[in-house]
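re: ur question from earlier - yeah i can do the single chain one, its not a big deal. heres the input i used so u can compare w yours
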Amino acid sequence: MCHRLHAIIAADQPYTFLYVGKWTAVLDKRIAIRVTDTEGQYRYRQIQPTRTGNYMFYFNQWIKLAEMPQFSNE
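and the output i got, formated as C-alpha cells:
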C-alpha cells in the first residue's frame, strides 16, 4: 500500500515533501543485525533505535531470516 501511495503522490505531486516531523518505523521481527564473532560464527542482534528514536540503516549488516531469532542478553 505504501508503494501505491507513493506512486499516486509522485504522479500528482501537489508539493514536494522536504521534511517529515514524526514517523513510525515498522520493522519485520525477522530482520536482525548479523555480526561475526572472533570464532567466525554469525551472531544476531536486535535492531534498536538511537536515543533520538531514529534507526541506523546499516543495510549491509541487516538480514532477513526465515524465522524470528532468539537474541542473547549480550
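The chain has a mean pLDDT of 80. not sure if urs matches, ping me
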